[in-house]
Write a structure and sequence with these properties.
Layout: E1 2-6, H1 13-27, E2 31-36, E3 50-54, H2 68-83, E4 87-91, H3 93-108, E5 116-120, H4 123-126, H5 135-144, E6 147-150, H6 153-162, E7 170-172, H7 188-194, E8 200-205, H8 214-225, E9 230-235, H9 241-250, E10 257-261, H10 266-270, E11 275-278, H11 287-294, E12 299-302, H12 307-310, E13 317-320, H13 325-336, H14 339-354, H15 358-376
Length: about 375
């Protein structure tokens, strides 16, 4: 099967999921064509079934903002025709779904039928998409897609709530982990380097935007540190970083907080960690937490969005109301209270993560592609 995958090339959730999905499909013998304005961050290995097509945007004095959506649609038309693609799978509604539908309509005029699968990931629905400026286009793109999937039941319901797409069936296919490529590593020497006095290692990964509530991460950590020796590892970067640095100093925990910036080898850091914090105001799924659980790290999180569908309260960690810093401190300390408690939660976190093994999820997408090809014939 020849599959075109349109995604953002960034470290964010939708880009990571799309890239890992494409790599797994290529490993199973499918020909996968990535289409984006830069090479996706996690395409770091050579595979004869993987291809990358860059979307170039011409700049003219007339345009204050280069017309990326139009350039993408034109590129999709050319790639579908030249590579004889069987299906387009677009990740993130804006602008990928609308560009794909535009391309589909252009190709239909030439008697070329290309099915479009649209996967909704989160902020394309819960934040950007529901802006009245974009809502009509997003609704139309969803309705015109051949198949629409969402990464959680929560996101599915949000889509029905905010858009006029009641007539469209949305399938829930959760995010996943490829355990052959992402799992706990033996890095005890690394842990000794970071925590020479056997401090607990608390970790958080995000894009440091307000919605991630990284300030709550630091506040929860300060509460943990008051009762247990610990260090906080902050992975990522973004607009809130300066504020978080100031808050660390205000709470007098700056000596125990490490800003690690953007990292590709996240599994190496997670492998030496003891607890993952995710107090987000909204999460459609919480892929960062799932990656932590795959490395046997329990999670204390908010119960926003789809997090509770993945992090089971009292089993793989705990979920609490958004902003409940005191509750998160209490539950974090409960996990860390003894070696036996921590070991049990680590074991449970891994068991829960295994439910999201790519080997369980990938066939769901393949079944969708196959059904569309049958209809196409």
């Amino acid at each position: 099967m020849k599959i075109g995958i349109v995604c953002y090339p960034t470290f964010g959730g939708s880009g990571v999921v799309a890239t890992e999905l494409g790599k797994a499909l290529a490993d199973r013998g499918h020909q996968v064509h990535f289409i984006s304005y830069n090479q996706p961050a996690r395409i770091d290995i050579f595979n004869s079934n993987l291809f990358y097509h860059e979307v170039n945007v011409s700049t003219y004095p007339l345009f204050d903002y280069p017309p990326y959506e139009t350039s993408l649609a034109s590129q999709l038309v050319n790639i579908v025709k030249n590579e004889k693609l069987d299906v387009l799978h677009v990740h993130y509604a804006i602008p990928h779904a609308s560009a794909a539908i535009f391309a589909k309509q252009i190709l239909a005029d030439e008697n070329i039928h290309i099915p479009v699968v649209t996967t909704l990931h989160g902020t394309d629905i819960t934040l950007v998409g529901k802006d009245p400026l974009y809502e009509p286009v997003v609704s139309y793109s969803i309705k015109q897609s051949d198949v629409v999937t969402a990464v959680s039941e929560s996101l599915k319901q949000d889509t029905y709530k905010h858009f006029h797409v009641e007539c469209k069936e949305i399938k829930v296919i959760p995010n996943f982990i490829d355990f052959k490529k992402f799992s706990k590593l033996k890095k005890e020497h690394f842990k000794k380097l970071i925590a020479p006095n056997n401090e607990f290692l608390i970790v958080h990964t995000s894009n440091f935007r307000k919605v991630k509530r990284v300030d709550d991460v630091v506040k929860v950590f300060a509460g943990i540190l008051a009762q247990q020796p610990a260090k906080l590892l902050l992975i990522g970067d973004g607009p809130e970083r300066t504020n978080i640095e100031h808050l660390s100093k205000e709470l007098n925990v700056q000596e125990s907080v490490m800003f690690l910036g953007k990292q590709e080898a996240i599994d190496e850091i997670l492998s030496v960690s003891d607890l993952f914090l995710l107090p987000s105001e909204n999460e459609s799924f919480g892929l960062a937490a799932l990656e932590a659980m795959a490395c046997e790290v329990p999670v204390v999180s908010s119960n926003a969005g789809g997090i509770g569908e993945m992090n089971l309260n009292g089993f793989s960690g705990y979920t609490l109301d958004v902003g409940d810093v005191e509750g998160m401190i209490e539950k974090s300390l409960e996990i860390l209270k003894s070696a036996e408690s921590l070991a049990q939660f680590k074991q449970n976190a891994f068991a829960q993560a295994k439910k999201f093994d790519i080997e369980n999820i990938l066939p769901m997408y393949e079944e969708i592609y196959t059904s569309l090809l049958i209809k196409k014939v």
